Queue: 2 jobs
Job 1
Amino acid sequence: MTPDVRDEARRADRPARAESRDEGGGGPRSAIAEADWDRALRLISAADEVALSCHVTPDGDALGSMLAVGFALRSLGKRVVASFGDRHFAVPRLLRFLPGQELLVPPEEFPAEPALMITFDSSTFERLGLLRANTAGAREVIVVDHHPSNEGFGTLSLIDSTAAATAVLAEQLIYRLGGRLDRDIATCLYAGLVTDTGSFRHSSTTPAVHQMAARLVATGLRTDEIARELWDRSPFSYLKVLAEALERVMLEDGLVWTYVTRVDRAAYGLPYAEVEGIIDIVRRTDEAEVAVVLKEDDQGAWQVSTRSKGAVDVGAVCVALGGGGHHNAAGYTSHDSVEETMAAFRRELGKA
Ligand code: AMP
Ligand code: MN
Ligand code: MN
């Protein structure tokens, strides 16, 4: 990548910031200060080893951003270790196509007290799961994220709530480190960009997002193959579980919602990670402004996915319920029953 292309990429997010909409949680945070980028570069250049982590049950943005930066750091001669703090450590099936999985270690093998750690797409300290202790033990923690609710739990924040994905910030970091885009890095970044923008459909899809996509696609990656990996490889059992969830879907006063139990999944042998896409079907309901899917995980907790069409800030609702997210896509964890969880959600929604 020539320097002028890099400059173009660096400039690319500026008009986007000026035009981007309020993504909630008290409005967009100001762009990342040059002094903070400089400090990040100094911390990284001084490090021999960099420990990377992202939020638990990683999505394309979390894992893609982390692996992309992992590749770039490795090519700069750094030792790189990457992980996420799930109790049952496994890369979700639909992200196994991402290159760079050789950088991953289970949380038990993650350094206990890293000199330098970087977190990706994790809006809170809690979202680091088992890696919380390692983060607390790290000398320096750079937090790379785009959630408006992120208050910065590290020693340095690279947080920009106007960025459509953490992958946008990861690309910036790679350029600033003097790295170049190759097809592997671009595949990881593209996975983040395409998932968090809802395939370039959400309001976060600015001209800068399309320009970034163009830079990534220019490396020769196959957008059709990535789309198939991400969305068109569900097992047949997914359809059976989806049918159960849709059988009990409720529409009440602008709110459409349903739930998926671990018993539903066990009946068809479907892993938890496979039910992530159900919210994308439920949210299509034209009569509803807000969509909710309660997903019971293997430990029996409800992982609550919420979506808004724009009028309601579900990010604020989920923050009030102990979770996080964005104006139009957010979530939280509940240990109550379905009925109690929905009662609490309706109460908070009424205030929003
Ligand atoms: P999901 O519904 O899992 O696709 O998540 C949508 C958004 O909500 C993402 O930006 C997540 O970071 C956020 N989110 C989901 N679950 C939680 C949680 N338990 N705590 C905090 N944020 C969450
Ligand atoms: Mn994420
Ligand atoms: Mn994200």
Job 2
Amino acid sequence: MRHLLSVGDLGVDGIDEVLKLTDSFVEVSERAIPKVPALRGKTVVSLFYEDSTRTRLSFETAAKRLSADTMNFTVGSSSVKKGESLRDTVQTIEAMGVDAIVIRHGSAGAPWQVAGWAEAAVVNAGDGWHEHPTQALLDCYTIRQHLGTLAGRRIAIVGDVKHSRVARSDVLAFTALGAEVTLVAPPTLLPPSLEGWPVEVSHDLDEILPKIDVAYLLRMQRERMTEALLPSLREYTACFGLTRRRAALLGADAIVMHPGPMNRGVEIAADVADLPNAVIVDQVRNGVAVRMAVLFLLLGAGNDLGGNERG
Ligand code: CP
């Protein structure tokens, strides 16, 4: 694997390989000193043109646990503010000697452009509405952890699918691993065409909830909405929010997921996000181990994973 741009590039075998390796890094993360020397001497740079809490910190933690050096780039305090182009920024960073570039960008396709220019491995940490492959991998890992398998599981992805890179990557990964996916949203929050998407569609959350194993709530991406797609947020919550009443319609073993950041009280009720079957914190925790696996596969395959940090 040279880059990780789309989860679709991995195929079933590639996803399985990442998830299997993630088990090892979960074990490393549980050690008293959660660090291995696998990527000593490598440098990982985070190039984030959009805000992030989970993905940025998770990649940074993953790189450090693998003993890589890390560099952080923040648009707000960089020469992008003086007009520097993405290409010049990438060339500048590469000239300093980096082995991996983790990029988040508001434009779909930006990581592919960077991969075309850079010698370093490129990881897509979210590009516009398009893809968020490591989110999909950590979501698959979390579902396997709680439900054993994705094969035959019924997963509802609920909410703002139209603007969601998470939904696009999750549909690819979940269906590749054999899950049945239903998108649940008002028509205005679905993509204009779902041709080629291996999914069912519903506009009735109450009817879907008793039948599913996973309720995957999406954030209402108000920053990406350029037109009035909803009469009001209150009406959205009334029809599509996972309220306490609706959460009670789920089966006893069903889990609730959300990629974060959550709008508590909009797509998910504040108290539902904290129920025992809401595995949102597990998603974040697993994200570090999944990203360790991805960085290791890109930069360190063949190195010794075994020991703790030595000297
Ligand atoms: N899920 C996710 O991508 O969260 P951040 O925007 O905080 O990275």
